[in-house]
Amino acid sequence: MTLLKDDSGREDADGGGGTPGAEDAYVPSDRRLDRERHKRARARRATAIAAVSTLVTAVVLYVVVVNAPGWPRTKETFFDAHYAREALPKVLEGLWLNVRLLLICGVLVLVLGMLIAIARTLPGPVFFPLRALAAAYTDFFRGLPLIINLMIVIFGVPALRLQGVTVDPVLLGGTALTLTYSAYVAEVFRAGIESVHPSQRAAARSLGLTNRQALRYVVLPQAVRRQVPPLLNDLVSLQKDTGLVSIGGAIDAVRAADIIAQRSMNYTSYIVAGLVFVALTIPMTRFTDWVTARMDRQRAQGGAV
Amino acid sequence: MSDAPVLRMESVRKTFGGSVVLRDVDLEVAPHTVTALIGASGSGKSTLLRCANLLEEIDDGAIWLDGEDITDPRVDQDAVRRRIGVVFQAYNLFPHMTVLDNITLAPRRVHGVSREEAEERAGELLERLGLGEKAHAYPDRLSGGQQQRVAIVRALAVRPRLLLLDEITAALDPELVGEVLTVVRDLKDDGMTMVLATHEMGFARDVADQVCFLDGGVVLERGTAEQVFGDPQQERTRRFLRRIVEAGRL
Questions:
Q1: In chain A, N or C: fewer CB atoms in 10 Å?
Q2: Which domains does chain B have, with CATH numbers?
Q3: pLDDT reported for residue A201
Q4: Comparison of pLDDT for A49 and A124, the residue scoring more
Q5: What does DSSP say about strands B7-16 and B60-65: parallel, antiparallel, or unpaired?
Q6: Distance of residue B241 Cα from the nearest chain A Cα, in angstroms
Q7: Which fold is adopted by the domain A89-295?
Q8: Which pLDDT band holds residue B2 (cuts at 50, 70, 90)?
Q9: Which residues of A touch B (CB under 8 A)?
Q10: Which residues in chain A have their CB less than 8 angstroms from residue B81's CB?
Q11: How far is CA A156 from CA A139, A144, A243, B148, in A?
């Protein structure tokens, strides 16, 4: 097998190697040409296999779904073009609330998460209470299901009937989202801070920088840079979870879909809302991938030196 | 008065967990002199330097910098570190900053020097060490020898009273060691007071006014370079130097 390929490779290369007027120019060896031909053949085979398997899967899925006993009814209830057209403007209107929630909560989460992370990494016995508090906070809110957090804040806070405290489900929902996501993001930041080698801090301190200056100028910039991909990941997550504030009655994309579905007894609006969220997260996911890839490249270059 | 030691250590003891790393260490470093700490790995050379810079807290004894007891808990440690420059074995440059920013960080943030002034001085120092065109490069674009020279410039930028060099050539390829050692020689000629931990025995013999042989956290032998390398008194020193010679490093 190998021998055969070798022979054919040599023949081919002879033809290519005879290019005139290239005395100094590099002529790929038979060995290289043969290797490249082999790689190309392998790539073609892989692509073909992937294409065929995708097609087969799609056909199987289609056949299974379309032949399902409830398909005609499901199609009517979930994929009705008429209702989709009716739902889209309402859902998009609601989505504006989700976007605003994302922007405001996103900023709050980053700030709060950073503060909690810093509190958790403060050295010395003086800061023990702060460290313990921050640890308890992250433990609690990372474990508490977001939906329960939302219900407690959205329904519990108004029940207290406190003077001057809002009962607006949007504000309360945003608060709950911020509470939970700050805990997630704090852990991401903390991991980043701890990933910066202690020798960096030692170098900063040896230059006379105070602990705070070392954190600000040396540790945090490196920590944040490293954690950009996981942070964006959490923001994508937050983006779709803004849909959960609908449980309090705030008219966001999900609630808008809900209203239409209740009225028309048709669920197409849910599909529309779902697709709108997906469409919103895709650019962010792609951006995350791009940043991650770019940082991996940079790290690879840095590591080579 | 001018001969009063820059750095003085008395009966310094340091333990990590149960193991004693420094035991009853005394040391005096006169102004404008070079002290070389030699000894096997784990003999306490690096720890001694880290204690002198207060990166490690000593368990007992005392350390004076220009006559001030810097191990007094009431002392402002950041102020002490400002007067001491340190160069590490692994360079420890800040990877997210350019060479220039690495060097000007402490002058600007700690000493309140203006950006222009700090960059001017950094430029001069870089020029002197043949790194003028690297000012705007990031550390990962430099060779090990270049990185270490930048680290030296960074330590010098705050005009330290004392420079601590912790095996600064140990991580370098052999052909890059020379360029770094040349810098240290130049600094000696300029009158910089230095304490260096090193495995480069030839260099230590060449440049040091005082050589201390550490063994198991104890300064076993000390003296001029001629005394310690030429006529070691202790059996362990002789054995250490013999091994070095056999390894072709002296």
A1: N
A2: 1-83+165-250 (3.40.50.300), 93-160 (no CATH)
A3: 94
A4: A49
A5: antiparallel
A6: 31
A7: MetI-like fold (1.10.3720)
A8: low
A9: 199-200, 202-210, 213, 217-218, 221-222, 225, 301-302, 305
A10: 205-208
A11: 21, 15, 19, 60
